[in-house]
Automatic annotation (TrEMBL):
It comes from Dyella telluris. Residues 31-47 have a biased composition (Basic and acidic residues). It is found in: Cell outer membrane. It holds the Pfam family Plug. Residues 71-182 form the TonB-dependent receptor plug domain. Belongs to the TonB-dependent receptor family. The keyword Membrane applies. This is TonB-dependent receptor.
């Protein structure tokens, strides 16, 4: 981080020293160098930094120059974002920062498999369309317990970061595990600065929908002391705290179902039509708190030995509260209201109409369509602790020994609790004309205002308790060649890890309170909200929905007091419902526990070479190979169906009692991962890179789960089994392997000016995807859905990037600058089957792309930095991509449509130490649009249309920020 104190015109000469300092924190990734020269460079850099007479460059220019130097001087293809100013990554979360890098995209959903719940800050990080991204902290493994192998980057406070590096085609000395790429988060070290450093940030943020002000702050202290007899010491402490409150409004269509019955065909002159079940509307209030602590000690007792220790603790607390009204009838039972017909477009797709339903409704009368209202409250806390200690010893002028040990522990506990009520909305009019957001109305409109028209229907709880722990040990030996025209240095290393993972989950425990088939002693057989727990029933009005641009009916819903008090909810709900109805399930049985262990032993060797004259132009590079052995063990259970309460034969009741059976597994495999990196320097500013490597990604722990749940589906009168099914993990999965090639042409025409283009290709084998196959247990065939190594996939594409400040312009115009990048990704293979959502039958012939892959994505950032002012406008866009092959709600392939968002910031430097500014997100009021389809049917027909499932809008967010550095 010597760039903090270096004038711009000296930065090019110090680039190599900067690279060494940045990579000294990066574990296996550290670049070797001659020990004597390295020490000399460190001493010279520190001396120069203390005696600067020039102007210190900070802000956006310094950060861009630092990131450019890292990319330019790296031994492999890498992209970086740095924060020269303390707490000043360009965006307020690590995920938002990463999406500015070419080839990197993020999901805007809490989970890709549940696209009914968007995320304001973004969640999953993908590199070149692949989710298999490995996270590092200072070059060492790091993970989140709730994310399996990966790191939930949104968990990590951005204020603690000195920079973020993305490796897309790693060399042999980078730890294995990411066929998509590796993201290394760098924190600061005390020897990065020449002396004392104090930094403070403070801010307050608010969203225009949530209208809740939340604080953020961070503080850093770093210093180094030279003693007379014990060498030099350094210490650093960094703490960050931030809160965020956001609101998301969403409106949805239920799946469009192929219909040929007379009721819906009336008046259409069509033979086949496609009718949705209804529409849903929901508001989600999201809150999160991030607390981060980082500390480091460094000791250099003499010129040949350096010792260090680092610790980081991230505490991420999240909660969200959803109010929703959603269709809860049978799609095939929807018909036009008496005396009306549905309107269709020429293709037979529903446009508008008055809906009614002929579903059975017990003692209730009327022609309404059934809807549920819910109040859903979810909370989660994830704590990740990382502690590591390292040493570096110069054995001689030619040999360096280094090593470290690391301990990582992550825990995540969550509770998800929902209370449902239900009603039958009469006079329901749905208008889907022209593909616009649904228009919904109820007639009479005051029907929704009477709590007697609603009844307490059900409740559902879900618990998770996940724990992961890893111990890792590494030892490296570097040998530097002297007076050799080609060989520079070589490096060997060994690494061993032990990982334990325990995942506990109760599943989603749904249970009835009252319903048409679960009646109590009341006139309707139901617990209506006017007479049963009336104090816990509240009118929810969906105020300012879509900023007032979409009108939806208000509904009665369970109160926040009830939904947020899981411990007492059972007593209240049990007192009004059927005796055998919902009861909490917060005990982890054998079927809920997934215990796994994993051991790895790895070794690598890499040779660095280079020559300035032999080929007519300077050329350098490295060639190496990494070998890793992995052994896994998983212990769990399978469970048969429980038919003891069903109306089936006594023989089946006796045979299927929900009994458990042991179901364990594991794997043992070796991977050889070679790599090659070449760089040709045509001029001092123009260079060409070639990279080839083999990478691997181990299956996620949830995919390796040994639990097998077997189920039996009964007919309408509960007397016979119509289908035997199952769901399971696969502890025998093999890792996904990719052979990958990159070539990049890079032109660095100014200290903050560059232009590059990269071509890439990945050939993936043993691709993991989920399929349904027939398996036999105790003589009975089951359709079991589990992950398999299903074949191959190919990814190819290109990246182009450009960055420049227009210093050649006169006066204040020289403060203008631009950053832009574009990525094109094409894929073949992966998952290419779908499921009929109504019969659970696998349908072949439906080609689906790799999930998460946008064919086109780009960033365009306008910058201005002159005098005390610094301004930034950043536009990020990505094209449509597949979220999941089977959405949790619709069971259809679900897509995120093209999405673009505009963010910005403006800062004013009060003096050389202090600045104040405003950071802004979602200035364009971006709309997230979710699509569903194609729809496959058991008879082999396929509706290839992509229907709009959802529209979502979130807050425009604003944060007033103050920063100070001394």
């Amino acid at each position: 981080m010597a760039l903090l104190y270096t004038p711009l015109n000296a930065r090019a000469q110090q680039a190599a020293a900067t690279q060494d300092q940045a990579q000294s924190q990066s574990g296996d990734q550290a670049k070797p160098a001659d020990a004597k020269n390295k020490k000399k460079a460190e001493d010279t850099s520190a001396k120069d930094a203390k005696n600067l007479d020039g102007i210190t460059v900070t802000g956006v220019r310094a950060s861009l120059a630092s990131a450019q130097d890292l990319k330019r001087n790296a031994d492999q293809i890498v992209d970086s974002v740095t924060a020269v100013d303390i707490g000043a990554l360009p965006d307020r979360s690590v995920t938002e920062t990463l999406q500015r890098i070419s080839g990197v995209t993020v999901d805007h959903f809490i989970s890709p498999g549940d696209p009914d719940h968007p995320s304001a800050e973004g969640s999953g990080v993908l590199i070149r369309g692949l989710t298999q991204v490995r996270g590092e902290l200072n070059g060492r493994d790091v993970f989140s317990a709730n994310s399996g192998r990966g790191l939930s980057f949104e968990d990590v406070p951005a204020e603690l970061m000195a920079g973020v590096d993305v490796y897309k085609n790693p060399s042999a000395d980078i730890i294995e595990g990411g066929i998509g790429g590796t993201v290394n988060l760098r924190t600061r070290m005390p020897f990065d600065a020449p002396g004392q450093l104090i930094g403070f940030t403070g801010g307050i943020n608010e969203g225009d929908l949530s209208q809740k002000s939340k604080p953020s702050t961070s503080f850093l202290y770093s210093n180094r002391w030279q003693t007379e007899n014990h060498g030099e010491f350094g210490a650093l402490f960094d703490v960050a705290y931030s809160q965020l409150a956001t609101r998301t409004d969403g409106i949805q269509n239920e799946p469009f179902v192929k219909r040929t019955d007379a009721a819906v065909l009336a008046g259409s002159n069509l033979n086949t039509v496609y009718v949705p079940g209804g529409a849903d509307w929901r508001t989600l209030d999201f809150g999160r708190t991030r607390i981060g602590l980082s500390g480091a000690l460094q000791w250099r007792p003499n010129s040949d030995l350096e010792l260090s220790t680092q610790a980081l603790r991230s505490d991420y607390r999240m909660n969200w509260n959803e109010h929703a009204a959603f269709f809860n009838d049978t799609s095939n039972a929807i018909s036009p209201a008496t005396g009306t017909t549905f309107g269709y477009n020429p293709e037979g797709v529903f446009q508008n109409g008055w809906l009614t339903s002929d579903s059975w409704r017990g003692n209730l009368t009327g022609d309404g369509v059934r809807f549920n209202s819910d109040n859903r409250y979810a909370q989660q806390r994830t704590i990740t602790t990382d502690w590591s200690s390292a040493f570096k010893y110069n054995i001689s002028d030619q040999m360096i020994l280094s090593g470290d040990m690391q301990f990582v522990k992550s825990t995540s506990k969550s509770l998800d609790f929902t209370v449902f009520d239900a009603t039958y909305l009469p006079g329901l009019y749905l208008d889907d004309s022209n593909g616009a957001k649904p228009s919904i109305s109820v007639n009479p409109s005051n029907y929704v205002n009477n709590p007697a028209n609603y009844f307490w229907a059900a409740a559902m709880d879900h618990h998770e308790d996940q724990r992961g722990m890893e111990r890792a040990y590494r030892l490296d030996l570097e040998y530097n060649f002297e007076d050799n025209s080609w060989l520079k240095y070589m490096r060997f290393g060994v690494r061993t890890t032990n990982r334990d993972e325990t995942n506990k989950t109760t599943g989603y425990n749904w249970g009835v309170i009252t319903d048409n088939w679960a009646t109590i002693d009341s006139p309707s057989g139901l617990a209506d909200m006017a007479n049963y727990l009336p104090s816990q029933a509240v009118m929810y009005n969906f105020n300012n929905f879509f900023r007032g641009k979409v009108k939806v009916p208000s509904v009665y819903a369970p109160s926040d007091a009830l939904a947020m008090n899981y411990q007492e909810a059972y007593q209240l709900l049990h007192s009004i419902g059927v005796s055998w109805g919902w009861s909490p399930n917060d005990v982890y049985g054998p079927q809920n526990v997934n215990n796994q262990s994993e051991d790895t032993q790895g070794a690598y060797g890499i040779l660095y070479f280079g020559n300035d004259d032999a080929l007519g132009i300077p050329v350098d590079g490295n060639i190496g190979v990494r070998f890793v052995h992995t052994s896994t063990d998983a212990a769990g259970y399978g469970q048969y169906p429980n038919l003891t309460q069903a109306g089936v034969s006594d023989e089946l009741k006796a045979q299927y009692t929900g009994q458990y059976f042991a179901n364990s597994g594991g794997g043992d495999y070796n991977n050889v991962l070679p790599s090659l990196n070449l760089r040709f320097k045509f001029t001092d500013s123009l260079q060409w890179r070639i990279a080839a490597s083999k990478a691997m990604t181990r299956p996620d722990f949830n995919q390796l789960s040994p639990y097998l749940q077997l189920s039996a589906t009964l007919n309408a009168d509960n007397t016979a089994v119509t289908q035997w099914t199952g769901i399971a993990g696969n502890p025998n999965l093999k890792p996904m392997v990719a052979t990958q090639y990159d070539t990049a042409l890079e032109w660095y025409f100014a200290p903050t000016g560059s232009l590059y283009t990269t071509l890439f290709y990945k050939d993936i084998s043993d691709y993991i995807s989920t399929e349904t196959r027939t398996e036999t247990y105790s003589g009975q065939d089951y359709l079991v859905t589990r992950p398999y190594n299903n074949g191959t996939g190919k990814i190819k594409g290109a990246e182009v990037g450009y960055s420049q400040f227009f210093d050649f312009l006169p006066g204040w115009l020289k403060g203008l600058g631009v950053q832009a990048n574009y990525t094109y990704v094409d894929s073949q293979g992966g998952v290419n089957s779908a499921t009929d959502p109504y019969s659970a039958t696998t349908v072949t012939g439906v080609a689906l792309p790799l999930a998460g892959l946008s064919k086109n994505s780009y960033n365009f950032i306008g910058m201005y930095e002159y005098g005390p002012w610094s301004v930034r406008l950043a536009w990020n866009w990505r094209s449509r991509y597949l979220l999941t092959t089977s959405d949790a709600a619709t069971h259809l392939p679900t897509w995120s449509d093209s999405f673009g968002q505009l963010d910005g910031s403006i800062f004013y430097k009060i003096n050389k130490n202090m600045q104040v500014g405003l950071q802004m997100n979602n200035l364009n009021n971006a709309q997230t649009k979710v699509l569903m389809g194609p729809t496959s049917y058991a008879d082999g027909t396929v509706d290839t249309r992509l229907y709009t499932r959802s529209w979502f809008v979130a807050d425009r967010r604003y944060e007033l920020v103050f920063r100070a550095t001394f």
